[in-house]
């Protein structure tokens, strides 16, 4: 179902949209606006999904085991030493 809506756009946006129609990339100004809104919807949904995944990861990590500062330093030093040894340093 289509809904008619009145929107205001800048002169620059109007020129760009009309050029896309004139070049045959889109059938009408409405098609240009619809495509722009669809891309914005997809981008917004992707960002929302990424944010939800990050929040879930933070919750999961927050419920896991923690390493003490000293143990973390020891593990980091061991990792660096192993990497150096791997490169013959």
Automatic annotation (TrEMBL):
Protein's recorded name: Antitoxin ParD
Organism of origin: Agrobacterium deltaense NCPPB 1641
Keywords: Toxin-antitoxin system
Lineage per the UniProt record: Bacteria, Pseudomonadati, Pseudomonadota, Alphaproteobacteria, Hyphomicrobiales
An example Gene Ontology biological process: regulation of DNA-templated transcription
Signal peptide: none
Gene3D superfamilies: Antitoxin ParD1-like
